[in-house]
Amino acid sequence: MHIPPIYKQTGWQRFLVGFFLGGIISYFVYLFMYGTLFEDWVKEKVEMEGTIHDLERDIEVLKDNNEEMNELQQEGLLIDEITVAIEPDDSLELDKLIEHELKEAIKEEARHMIGRSVNGAVQNTPLLLGAIENKVYELDGFRYKVAVKQLIISEILYLTVTVETDI
After folding, report:
1. For the chain, what is the mean pLDDT?
2. SS3 state at 166
3. Helix and strand numbers, DSSP H then E, in the chain
4. Can you give the pLDDT at residue 69?
5. What is the end-to-end Cα distance of the chain in Å, rounded?
6. Nearest partner of 117 among 159, 65, 161, 160, judged by Cα
């Protein structure tokens, strides 16, 4: 029995070339889809790690002040959370990432206030304002100074700040 030579038939040649080209194209499509999904996964992972890191620091602060908190809960209110708002400045255009990093840096400066009584926080207000306003925040090669415009102390510590560049 004789097997006909396939390499002489153009139909089979076109089929095999199409098969290999389709395989190569589908491989590149697969790589693109996998890269896009992997990039999204990395972004989500970084956000979750940041959230976990914040929560772990909050747990450490609360564990350190556990005995003090038990006594203070009987006496009055405690600060549970810090909220920072940045007032928009038309002359200084901050992108969302810089704004988020700046908020996180300000929260880090005020983190020691979590777990304290409202009365104790009122007494330490000048120290908090000095710590926040006297620090120069360096983000992405730029230096920023903040001024606290409004401070509200309750169960949630509200800070409203204005941002200016430090030359």
Report:
1. 85
2. coil
3. 5, 4
4. 65
5. 89
6. 65
- Rounded CA separation 21/27 (Å): 10
Report pLDDT digits (tens) over 65-120: 776 766 666 666 788 889 999 997 778 888 888 888 899 999 999 998 888 878 88
Helix (H, G, I), strand (E, B), or coil: what is residue 2? coil
Of 87, 89, 68, the residue nearest 78 (C-alpha): 68
Cβ–Cβ under 8 Å, residues 53 and 126: no
∠ CA 55-56-57, nearest 5°, is 90
What lies within 8 Å, CB to CB, of 144 at 6+ separation is 102, 136, 137, 138, 163, 164, 165, 166
